[in-house]
Amino acid sequence: MQLDEAKSKFIEGWGTLGSAWGVSRTMAQVHALLLVSPNALSTEDIMEQLQISRGNVNMNVRALMDWGIVRKELRPGERREFFSAEKDIHRVATLILQERRKRELEPIMRVLGEISQVEPSPTSTPEETEAFTKMIASVQSFANFANSAASTLIKADENWFLSTFMKLMRPG
Amino acid sequence: MQLDEAKSKFIEGWGTLGSAWGVSRTMAQVHALLLVSPNALSTEDIMEQLQISRGNVNMNVRALMDWGIVRKELRPGERREFFSAEKDIHRVATLILQERRKRELEPIMRVLGEISQVEPSPTSTPEETEAFTKMIASVQSFANFANSAASTLIKADENWFLSTFMKLMRPG
DNA sequence: ATATTCTTTCAATTATTATTGAAAGTTCAG
DNA sequence: CTGAACTTTCAATAATAATTGAAAGAATAT
Questions:
Q1: For B103-161, how does the pLDDT look when each residue is reduced to its tens digit (9 = 90+)?
Q2: Considering A56, A85, A114, which residue would you say is the last residue of a domain?
Q3: What domain count does chain B have?
Q4: pTM of the model
Q5: Which PANTHER family match (chains A, B) (predicted)?
Q6: Which domain holds residue A55?
Q7: A122: which chain B residues are within 8 Å (Cβ-Cβ)?
Q8: What are the strands of the beta sheet with B41-42, ordered from one edge?
């Protein structure tokens, strides 16, 4: 297989994976393209390679920057912007984990907290209420577990990142 | 808060969560409804409570059964079918993990395996090819890690999960 | 100040995905 | 077998989400 074909397959596969995880196909493809590009790409490069519009590139690139997995790169003497992806896949996973925890886990935990304070009422039997609170409590305990697991992974990765960074700073 | 309101909020919240994870809102809501219902529900019950059509209920309930998190319940002397959700949320998580590994991780690993065999060619420099294979190798190694982590979690029994893993995850 | 080059926005359009509902299929009692 | 009760399918429709492209906005050079 040749390089160009391999790159296309990766972009396609990454796009499919993304859509299974609630990320739009194009956003995942822009990410994949930046991952397989050794150099930072301009908006026009991305437009051309993925055959999508300028506005589309702009929106998706900014969303990827929001996730923290793509950076803007400015070159001296160049007006236009270039974009490059975080290549350390471990760090990519951590950043995504971090964002998803904030965007999804936290809201559902808030809802669970609210509804766990259900009160007995004339329209429901105590048994019904108890069954419900028991169910919610188990979901809550799982959410807590997921939350602390995520914290630990994020912290572990930060340590790892910091240590490699420190090594870089103090060569020898 | 009263029970009915609490149930509605849970169904709504679960639906929102689902759509962030690539599960259709309605499918997640059917699942939530079954989670908060002490007894198994018929197709008509679900239609009425979620205000959706018969065909819609049928499709989503079958998808949930494919995931292994909803069961059909037959009652002697009753022609129609009743449905109930797996209430052990840990088991729900395991079953979902299992399915997602099969449906998503395996395909991307296959693609990665194929494209890692990229050959040098006239249209690309050895440096480009090397950068690409290096990137792919790191994604592969991460996918392998994710895959074996999933395996371990799936295989692990509940006791191990709760005691050992919780301790591991607890920041010290 | 004006032109130039690039970025951003957003209403309109297009594409994708979910939903409906009626018809066909199934099962079973009589 | 026939009819009643229920389930499944699927083409049509509706709802949602992504995409475009042109116009407005920014930044810099002349």
A1: 999 999 999 999 999 998 888 898 899 999 999 999 999 999 888 888 887 776 555 55
A2: A85
A3: 2
A4: 0.89
A5: HTH-TYPE TRANSCRIPTIONAL REGULATOR MJ1563-RELATED
A6: 3-85
A7: none
A8: B41-42, B82-85, B70-73
